[in-house]
Specification:
Layout: H1 8-22, E1 25-31, H2 38-48, E2 50-56, H3 60-69, E3 76-77, H4 81-89, H5 102-109, H6 115-127, E4 136-148, H7 154-159, H8 166-169, E5 180-183, H9 186-197, H10 208-221, E6 225-227, H11 229-236, E7 242-246, H12 247-267, H13 276-284, E8 289-291, E9 294-296, E10 300-303, E11 310-317, H14 324-335, E12 339-341, E13 344-346, H15 348-356, H16 363-370, H17 379-390, H18 399-416, H19 432-446
Parallel strand pairs: 1-2, 1-3, 5-6, 5-7
Antiparallel strand pairs: 3-11, 4-7, 4-10, 4-11, 8-9, 12-13
Helix pairs in contact: 9-10, 10-19, 12-18, 15-16
């Protein structure tokens, strides 16, 4: 997935030059990296004759710092639930006029949000009454524990322990020499530690004794790595065995690996088209598929604890937004699933979900994603594949490859994002001072 990473000042300068020459409005958008299909930005620019300048942040705290600093007056921002609460409590968000968001309003009013999103919105409302008038859900999901299925005894240690968090904090339950990675976000690690220790932080900040317990837990665990995006890559590469991460980060690699394995087996002449559904189901069921002495398996999976972290990233308009009308149009565009731009019918909400592999808030988009697993395979697929590869197309970039990937993503959404599931709790919007205490506790433990 490509990132749109550049100097924000340079982009703004160029954007101002372009806008002044063509009378185009500029929309300033603060987003996460790899968190939008950027062809949609180009389509929106074409549709509205504007320029979208996208800046990236690596954490919700960076988002808050960028917005509160006032150096750049962002129009649209994509903070997570607890950060929306903090921005709301500090009077930094615009109360939305939902008449200017007809697509989202139609979905919301027709009960078109998934139940998990409704659950998160209810949690936010219980913290801050009226907050639902200040955001539109964008993408959401859970956190899970990704693990290798190749290590004997490891899957049982991760999934069958009485304490669902033990594999992250208790080496005695793990096979010898298991390498464990913790996500390098202290608030998420703090939540996981609290769950393992049975500490209830939901009512507020913990006392010194509880923080000492967390300190000793992390210090004694001696994590083999602290990472972010690299954790999933290291598990796939067999350099790490267990890691805490976003479910969506796992999902992309999972579906990609399944499609790769089927293409491998076909190129090795271990299967023909009639075997595609059989090998796909074997891989999805964590089974080893064997043919002609060759074996194929995914090699990793994810376990999502019942009391995991749930999250919803949302689109908000800042109170100081300079281009409010354009911001409304941008948010409604991203909620849409049928937009005509240059005679092309686009599906922004579907395309973003498919691209990012995090869950959609919308029932209709979820149903469309899961319907991909209805794909069937026949000789026409093989004939087209042979023609493409003969003409120089990489087998792993072929129409057949993406059809296999589609099948996998449809099944994976059904498996890891159950349609009616309400699992997990959102993070607490702690004060800046207490966030500093959490960071200091973990930094000292890691040292």
């Amino acid at each position: 997935m490509a990132k749109r990473i550049s100097s924000l000042l340079l982009i703004i300068f160029l954007g101002v030059c372009l806008a002044s020459c063509s009378n185009r409005q500029i929309l300033l958008f603060l987003n996460w990296g790899e968190y939008i299909d950027e062809s949609l930005i180009e389509a929106f620019e074409e549709k509205e004759n504007c320029t979208v300048v996208m800046d990236l942040g690596e954490s919700n705290e960076i988002f808050y710092s960028k917005i509160s600093g006032g150096t750049t007056l962002y129009d649209v921002v994509c903070p997570s639930d607890y950060m929306v609460e903090k921005l709301y409590n500090n009077d930094m968000l615009l109360k939305l006029d939902f008449q200017k968001l007809p697509t989202y309003s139609s979905i919301y009013n027709s009960n078109g949000l998934l139940s998990g999103v409704n659950s998160i919105m209810n949690m936010m409302e219980s913290d801050c009454e009226g907050i639902s008038s200040y955001f539109v859900p964008y993408l959401w999901g859970t956190w899970g524990i990704m693990y290798s299925t190749l290590n004997p005894g490891l899957e049982e240690a991760v999934t069958n322990n009485e304490n669902e968090w033990a594999s992250l904090f208790d080496r005695s339950v793990l096979p010898a020499n298991t390498k464990v990675a913790m996500y390098d976000s202290h608030q998420h690690a703090y939540y996981a530690a609290c769950q393992y220790l049975g500490l209830d932080y939901s009512s507020g900040e913990l006392g010194e004794n509880e923080l000492d317990q967390i300190f000793n837990l992390v210090k004694d665990m001696k994590f083999d790595a602290w990472g972010t995006d690299n954790i999933k890559k290291d598990i796939v590469a067999k350099n790490i065995d267990v890691g805490f991460m976003w479910t969506g980060d796992f999902l992309y690699y999972y579906c990609e690996t399944i499609a790769n394995k089927v293409i491998d087996a076909y190129l090795n002449k271990d299967i023909d088209v009639d075997d595609f559904n059989t090998i796909l189901q074997a891989l999805l069921n964590k089974e080893v598929y064997t043919s002609n002495g060759n074996s194929y398996e995914v090699g990793f999976d994810i376990f999502i604890p019942q009391n995991t972290i749930a999250f919803c990233d949302n689109l908000v308009i800042t109170k100081d937004a300079q281009h409010q009308d354009l911001a409304y149009k941008f948010i409604d565009f991203l909620c849409s699933n049928s937009v005509i731009v240059d005679d092309v019918n686009l599906q922004p909400a579907y395309q973003n979900t498919y691209y990012v592999c995090y869950n959609t808030p919308f029932v209709s988009v979820y149903d469309e994603i899961t319907s991909l697993s209805a794909n069937t395979f026949n000789n026409d697929d093989i004939n087209n594949f042979n023609l493409e590869t003969k003409n120089g197309v990489d087998p792993y970039d072929s129409t057949l490859y993406y059809k296999l990937y589609d099948f996998a993503i449809g099944e994976a959404f059904r498996k890891y994002y159950p349609k009616d599931e309400n699992k997990g709790n959102i993070l607490h919007p702690f004060s800046r001072n207490y966030v500093n205490i959490i960071n200091r506790t973990f930094n000292n433990a890691r040292a």
